[in-house]
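Re: your question from the hallway

Yes, I did run it. Sequences:
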Amino acid sequence: MERVRSEQLYTEAKEHILGGVNSPSRAFKGVGGGTPVFMKRGSGAYFWDEDDNKYIDYLGAYGPIIAGHAHPAITKAIQTAAENGVLYGTPTKLENEFATKLKDAIPSLEKVRFVNSGTEAVMTTIRVARAYTGRDKIVKFAGCYHGHSDLVLVAAGSGPATLGTPDSAGVTKNIAKEVITVPFNDIDAYRETLEKWGTEIAAVLVEPIVGNFGMVEPAPGFLQQVNELTHEHGGLVIYDEVITAFRFMYGGAQDYLDVYPDMTALGKIIGGGLPIGAYGGRADIMEKVAPLGPAYQAGTMAGNPASMSAGIACLDVLAQEGVYEHLNNLGERLETGLLRLARKHHVKCTVNRVKGALTLYFGTETITNYDQADATNSEQFATFFKAMLDQGINLAPSKFEAWFLTIAHTEADIDQTLEAADLAFAEVATT
Ligand code: PMP
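Structure:
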């Protein structure tokens, strides 16, 4: 597949835009380098690049595009919002409408606030948890990504009960010391952490179903135990549902799993593709936020009519009957097909799937935590990724990401994808 224009545009981009991309995950670093594809149009499950090559898209813009590209109802909602003026700086009825919809879908959100990104949402839940508890430390799980605020760009210490160190230049040691990182699905490590630091911990940050080292589900009882232990020690539980909310059902992963946090951070899907974040939770905690309380958080763009309109339209699409059944059916077809082809070509791999989101891991049989995901075969993934891309299948360029199905994908798309995978696995098998 020729991608001459992408090559030219990437060269040009690197002259003007740092690294040629506006988010590092778009560069092909995770697949050993290469030229990112410059897309020019998306419609439904498909993309067309600047050379007019067509792709079936499984990136879904890293998650938000669950309704497919340019979904007519969402597009219409954005057009109407634009015609009425995109930004007011005053309250609007749309914010009430959207807040009510979110609360109806995710009942633990007694009060909500809209922000502009998942990063902001998570960052603010941490501030609010600190304001509420009067404590400074937080716990997070290894390999989970919670945006790029200083507080969460922190690497694990040498054991579960040791304090963190900066995971990015520019994050101070003092900030990192407030963050403790423990392995996901390891309740003993979490208990040990609380025994050591419990009285200083404001909150634990949890992706209830992990989406950032592939899709990884919590072990049975793990989230319940995290809740119990955290509350016993006087801390709060924050769910980062930026990826998971409305992914598996009309509601949060918390509603899907029937285990509930004190606060939740949201983003991605709820904006229908426009910039958004939101956070919310127990009313007595949320009341710590300005203008009612002493914890400050604000935003010029927060709750803007365009994002509200796109979000409302997206949730209306997702509320339709059969949506999640469709995603699950396609996910199952894809998973079964990928595993069958892997066996056919004697390539060792496993698939973790929750409904319409899955990750294909190479060189392994089980993935329940980050270390296992990190140890999977990067070269095989890179070979597979490139072979798929050259056959018009657009996956995320990293072994840690998920394939996201949209309601626009069809069984024929899955079958075409599997045909491409047959060749891609063959290539993996010979390298
Ligand atoms: N939390 C999670 C779980 C995420 O996956 C992401 C983004 N991938 C974020 C937070 C940050 O969201 P944003 O990129 O909108 O700032």
